[in-house]
Amino acid sequence: MVRMEGLLFLGVFACLAGITVIFYIAVRQRNAPAVVNTAVSFLLVFIPVLVDVLAHWFYGVRVGLTPELPLWIAVTGLFHSYGMLGPYDEISWWDHLTHTLSAALVAALLYAGVIVALEYAPVSAGNSLIWTTVVLVTLLSGVYWELIELLAREFGRKFDLPPVLDHYGRRDTVLDLFFDVVGAVLVLVTDLRLFVPMAEVSPETTVAVLVVVLGGLVVGSLVISLIVVVEQAESKTQTHSGRFD
């Protein structure tokens, strides 16, 4: 068991090394979007560790962190970072791969949280409710991400800067959401309960996190949608006024 954990952590460090190399290449190429995305991918790997440290510091409890979570984040970040150097544009299935990986991670965390939350719920729930909840919330997170891409594109146009994230149109959005669902279904079909022990450390906290995440996705999606609509309207107004000048 100890040896396996050591190998998993070694995998995390290997992915971080790969992301660091990609960051260096992006800087050399003056590829600002790749630099930003690679830096964020690197930092995200440490979020679970930071949460575990803060939970122990403030509440005296451990999150039950396992190396699988940072490894999954690191692998996903590595593929995404490398994609920013060209594969997203040159390899048709690269975007599908990264969406499936990231959505599966979201779904695995949701699956664990929903299982634990329903165990302590006053009413019983079957697998159909769990599956529906995981798929719908994973899909909602995918919609949220697509809206962020749209927002990045609009701000890039407004300030004449290269967008940090690329948005390739409606067809690409539909495909992205489809593979988000594929990632969620893979987790459910395989009954992947990898993160259940983490969720069981504090069921009350797990329920609270689920509520905050769901609320954040709903409110965030509405706010970003409003901003994108306003930006697009302003852009069209400026375009029309430019034609008449």
> SSE order in H/E notation?
HHHHHHHHHH
Please give the radius of gyration in angstroms: 20 Å
**How many distinct folded domains?**
2
Unreliable runs, pLDDT <50, ≥5 residues? none
> Can you give the mean pLDDT?
88
Q: Which structural category fits the helices and strands?
A: mainly alpha
Instruction: State the total count of DSSP E strands.
Output: 0
**What's the overall geometry?**
globular
Q: Beta-sheet strand percentage?
A: under 5%
Please outline the major beta sheet: none
Distance between the termini: 72 Å
Q: Number of DSSP helices? A: 10
What percent of residues adopt helix (DSSP H or I)?
Answer: over 70%
Transmembrane segments: 6-27, 39-59, 71-88, 100-123, 129-152, 173-195, 207-230
InterPro entries: YjdF-like
Keywords: Membrane, Transmembrane, Transmembrane helix
Pfam family, one: DUF2238
Summarize the structure.
InterPro entries: YjdF-like. Keywords: Membrane, Transmembrane, Transmembrane helix. The protein has about 240 residues and is mainly α.
Could you walk me through the main structural features you see in this protein, from its secondary elements to its overall organization?
- This protein has two domains: 1-91, no CATH class; 99-239, no CATH class.
- 81% of the residues lie in helices and 0% in strands.
- The chain has ten helices and no strands.
- It has helices spanning 2-29, 32-44, 47-59, 68-83, 87-90, 94-119, 127-158, 170-189, 196-200, 203-244.
- The radius of gyration is 20 Å and the shape is globular.
